[in-house]
Amino acid sequence: MTEPTTDSDLTVVYGAEELVVGPDDETGVVIREDAAFAALDGEVVAVGPADEVLSDYPVEDAATAIDATGKTVLPGFVDPHTHAVFAGDRSDEFVAKLRGTTYEEILADGGGILRTVDAVREASTEELAANLAAHLDVMLEHGTTTVEVKTGYGLDTETELRMLDAIETAGDGHPVDVIPTFMGAHAVPRGMDTEEYTEAVVSEQLPAVAEQGIAEFCDVFCERGVFTAEQSRRILEAGREYGLTPKIHADEFAAIGGTDVAADVGAASADHLLQTDDDGRETLVGADVTPVVLPGTAFGLGAEYADARSFLDAGHEVALATDFNPNCFARSMGFVATLGSVGMRMTPQEAIRGITSAAANALDRDDGTGTLRSGSRADAVVLDIPSARHLSYRFDTNPVSTVLKSGVVVHE
Ligand SMILES: N=CN[C@@H](CCC(=O)O)C(=O)O
Ligand SMILES: [Zn+2]
Questions:
Q1: Which residue's CA lies nearest to atom 1 of ligand 1?
Q2: Which residues participate in Fe(3+) binding (predicted)?
Q3: pLDDT at 105
Q4: Pair (229, 344) in one structural domain
């Protein structure tokens, strides 16, 4: 990076081998050979061949100028599904799963999510925020500039609110944009039955969450042995009444109607979709619900991957997310892009769209997040790879060399 030469708020990135702008067609708009963008006051004002961009926005006038020769520039990565605020260690369950115990058996035995609930209830809000901030640092180093974070390890009003406080605190002091989701309906706490707990989520937790005013989305684990489709619908509709946009965990282990619920409540996304069939896919597409697939979870569980190709072959986009949680210790969207390609046959361009603009759609962002178009916020990743397809192709080291948030270098 050259030294700042003026005190203007101009940022220029130039000389890139490839620069991906956004998904204006199936392959996305890619500018090749000596590509550049310029940003003024944090917003992209020009993008294209370097000679054109730099004639209007010369390097000498820039406060920040990045020579991306030999490199690739992508929109900042958007991770639309994580459970990144937690405490404790479940690596022993990883070993149990290697020996054949299933995820559902561990949860039914009071482990899994419920063990993390014990650890989170014991942790202070400050500890939870510090844990999350440390994970955000790693995500940023790997190119993520926007991330959604869910609650759901409290399962009582007080701890769910503390989780939201921790999410807000960690996000406030951090360059990564953090989008909070309330997920009180992540599991049923010990000592309660599902119906009783559904009632508690609707009549106790949701009003308190709305009053607190931090959460933007409401999510439910609609799954065999967890919340039924009807309970999920009830919770998401109640959340909507309080202004929370619905999201849903659907069809991870069994297809029990989560896609219908997603369509009926107007969910921003339906996530997992490992067991979704043609009808379920049509339902989501018809209702404009963004499908989010989580190949890290399938990889970690040794499960089959979601059928992303069926959406893509029918002309629909698919978002990718890490699903970072104690059962899926993945914070790198680059690795998720590789899993998308290797596990689900997504082309590198489809995977890049999946971790940028499609992921932004899963979070209902229509402000250019996940693109580098004129008018978008200048969130960008400069990668030490000679073309965009190397993001999926290489999976040995982190290729991120510089991350910009609103035109400012926040990691290099
Ligand atoms: N499946 C439900 N929730 C998370 C896992 C959370 C956990 O196991 O702690 C998921 O999306 O993968
Ligand atoms: Zn999840």
A1: 221
A2: 81, 83, 249, 323
A3: 94
A4: yes
Which string of b and e fits 155-175 if b means at least 16 CB within 10 Å?
A: bbbebbbbbbbbbbbbbeebb
Structural domain contains residue 251: yes
What local confidence, expressed as pLDDT, does residue 1 receive?
37
Quote the domain boundaries for residue 215. 88-362
Q: Are 334 and 391 in contact (CB under 8 A)?
A: yes
Each residue's pLDDT tens digit, 339-369 = 999 999 999 999 999 999 999 999 999 999 9
For residues 172 and 234, membership in a common domain is answered with: yes
Exposed e or buried b per residue across 104-126, where buried means at least 16 C-beta atoms within 10 angstroms of its C-beta: bebbeeebbbbbbbebbbebeee
Same domain for 20 and 108, yes or no, is no
Which CATH number covers residue 276?
3.20.20.140
CA distances from 184 to 188, 230, 239, 322 (A): 9, 16, 11, 20
Q: Which residues of 342-360 are buried (b: 16+ CB within 10 A; e: fewer)?
A: bbbebebbbbbbbbbbbbb
pLDDT beyond 80 at 27: no
Within-domain flag for 304: yes
Residue bearing tokens 């404009």: 288
Give yes or no: residues 53 and 182 share one domain.
Answer: no
Cα separation of 220 and 258, whole Å? 10
Ligand 2 centre to CA of 297 (Å) is: 9
The three-point CA angle 94-297-158 to 5° equals 80
ipTM for the complex shown: 0.98
Mean pLDDT, the chain, whole residue set: 95
Q: What is the CATH number of the domain that holds 395?
A: 2.30.40.10
In a domain, residue 4? The reply is no
- 376 and 254 part of one domain: no
pLDDT of residue 95: 93
The Å distance, Cα 300 to ligand 1 centre, comes to: 12
Instruction: Name the amino acid, one letter, at 75.
Output: P
pLDDT for res 201: 98
Query: Which two structure tokens, joined as six digits, stand for 89?
Result: 């260690």
Using most ligand atoms within 8 A of CB, pick from 148, 328, 329 the residue to mutate for ligand 1: 328
Per-residue pLDDT averaged across 212-238, rounded? 98
- Report the pocket of ligand 1 as residue ranges, CB < 6 Å: 83, 112-113, 116, 221, 249, 252, 297, 323, 325-328
Express each pLDDT in 98-125 by its tens digit. Answer: 999 999 999 998 899 999 999 999 999 9
